[in-house]
Amino acid sequence: MTRAPCEVSWFSALCDDDYEFLGVPDERLRSSWEHCRDIVLQAESGGFDNILLPSGYTLGIDTTAFAAGIAPLLRRLWLLMAVRVGESWPPQLARQIATIDRMLGGRLTVNIISSDLPGETLASAPRYRRTVEAMHILRTLLDGKSLDHQGEFWQLQLDPPGVTTTLGRCPLLYFGGLSEAARDAAAEQADVYLMWPDTIEGVRGIIADLRARAAAKGRTLRFGYRVHVVVRESEAEARDAADRLLSRLDDATGAAIRARSLDSQSAGVRRQAELREGSDDGYAEANLWTGIGRARSGCGAAIVGDPDQVLAKLEAYRAEGIDAFILSGYPHAAEADLFARHVLPRLDHAPLAR
Known about the structure:
Helix content: 25-40%
Shape: globular
Oligomer: single chain
Mean pLDDT: 92
Largest sheet: 8 strands, parallel, barrel
Low-confidence stretches: none
Strand content: 15-25%
Radius of gyration: 19 Å
């Protein structure tokens, strides 16, 4: 059976997550309009299909404002705009999404984050119920329909919106989370289920579980994989580059970076810690290096190797059912260039079919 092309995205460090040496702040790499703009433009010129614009209310710059600013500068690149639904009124968020989609000529996708309202904490189960409601509201309005929603968190009766997306339907909704509540939320409302780094066996199990949950609801899901990359001409050079990233990190600094993340206690973060703590010489399996997790909460591993090894690893994930990759590396602009030259032309890739 012929596989469809995979989507290959890069990452723009809107949340103060760019380093030459992990854990060592560098003023040249701090989140700013100019720096993050340059990463996006590097991704477009390098041939990537899409780029994740992350979101956080304690770090970096605002994602929605950045997306609107960068949209007129792009010719072909898609944007994967992260939105924190706990901080938003869904009808207003739908209008923002529709407007930015039109600015891009329809090249917008949305990463739904199940966030709290700043200053408040909602338990996991109700927070994900709220996220499911938000995705339902967004999908209804972005499909150009009237809304009659009487939910636990929002009660809304609205006419069809005056501003719709370019194609008149909701952009693809990407969503991730490993907890039971998160998996159920993805099965009910997401289009693309995102996962953080894991072993091939781990990826296989997650995909099987999510497919079954979605099928029970009469739905299907596509699958995305978020991971860092370190690619060099030889494996030895790639491993040296990975070691260099950690060469100025001390354990206390790394722990402080992990602790300040908003998701530092989530099931996904715990899984990243398990991979790191159970790895042999920092590698959870061949070419999957967990060292980045020493100074980063969340996505805490990288594919490390020469171009053939990195390509083979990505193809192995594709064989398990991964449809989209969201990649990054440190520093982000430089590593995007290396991946674009050494690996990207050898992948069958394109934006996900809508």
